[in-house]
Amino acid sequence: MSEDTKKPEAYYGLPQEVRFCKRCVMSNQRPSSYPEFKHTKARITPTLHIGEDGLCDACRYAETKEDIDWEKRETELQQLLDKHRREDGRYDCVVPGSGGKDSAYAAYVLKYKYGMHPLTVTWPPILYTDYGYRNYLNWIEVGGFDNIMLRPNGRAHKLLTRLAIENLLHPFQTFILGQKNLPPKIAMKYDIPLIFYGEPEAEYGNPIAETESSLRDKSYFTMKDMNDVYIGGVSVPELQEKYGLSLNEMSPYFPPDATELEKAKIEVHYLGYYLKWTPQEAYYYAVEHTGFQARPVRSQGTYSKYASIDDKIDDLHYYTTFIKFGIGRATYDASQEIRNNHLTREEGVALVRRFDGEYPDRYIQDVMDFLEMDIEHFMELCDKGRSPHLWRKDGDQWVLRHQVE
To answer: 3-state DSSP helix/strand/coil percent for the chain, to nearest 5?
Structure first.
């Protein structure tokens, strides 16, 4: 193949051919998982699967939800809870979250409808918004829940978040690591048998489970040798030697020990497997029962106001997914609402074209000040992170090669 006809390089292990789902507005460039503990050049695999029929896995899962016997599923839930419910004053389930609509709904239903005794567990946002922090307090105080929050060492948190941006263009990595790894550690510490999340990952197009039981379970990162762990694209030994971080300072980000987690026999479930989950309904429920409040303004990069609003770095995170994968926040929101029949595909396309990739100037200076990073440096990192198979230069402007139609 000559240089003139050679296809542009695809970064991150993304598919060379860009395809869009014919029902929603998501493309096959959406990663199903991030390489949270890998080095800089780690491949992001697998990506969203779009079948020969033109439908993505998330849309296929949305169709199967209409055929599920939800009364039977709720009976399964009641049997599970009856097996583990405690009457001796101890907690019997962990609900991770920060007081957003999903965690507020899950904790409230488990406690007040099914008589469970949840311990809510929070790995806090990197930079709380004022309204996000109010929602967290309302979740605990208005909803009535015990809560454990682990705030990581500020110096280490800042450094690791900055490294994640510089090496992976991934502002959310430190949040995701804590959010994913804290709940099983707390469950082991307090001998709590159940962890409940909200929506199944299949809702977002992660590979559809072959069996119902595997759909309920969630795989955690586990660790046998910390020398194999990378945070922010940097190995643990290098973080110690080059950046002066101690193992104690890094420990909140580490996954649980594989052997200890296996011995604990903790069951991990999605409430959305047992109860039909609709994000908008969870939002209304959280407003009514825990005092949840939507953002006072539209979230930048999308048209919505109530999802992922507690962290100032949220908007920056979705901006970087647009840079890396050509998928911005409006694509995520519109795809979910199309699947729930709250938008038509035509409306979704229009919203994506209008809002995807909007520059997040509302909080970017706050984020850069926290990270001690210049905006110019961040934008240089963004330009380096644009995959050539997705982006081309038109004069001095970057233009997507493929857009949803």
So the answer is: 45, 10, 45
H/E element, 212: helix 212-216
Q: For the segment 212-236, what is each residue's pLDDT rounded down to a tens digit? A: 443 444 445 555 677 778 899 999 9
Per residue in 103-125, pLDDT tens?
999 999 999 999 999 999 999 99
| Predicted local confidence at residue 264, as pLDDT | 87
| Amino acid at site 64 | T
Question: Which residues sit opposite 148 in a β-bridge?
Answer: 121
Long-range contacts of 103-106 (CB under 8 A, 24+ apart): 103/139, 103/198, 104/135, 104/139, 104/143, 104/282, 104/285, 104/286, 104/289, 104/290, 104/292, 105/198, 105/282, 105/285, 105/286, 106/196, 106/197, 106/198, 106/271
Domain boundaries, the chain: 1-405
Element (H, E) at 121: strand 118-122
> Which pTM was predicted?
0.91
Burial of 284 (0-12, 13-18, 19+ CB in 10 A): middle
For residue 190, pLDDT over 90 is answered with yes
Q: Six-digit token pair at 54?
A: 């033109």
Question: At residue 126, what is the residue type?
Answer: I
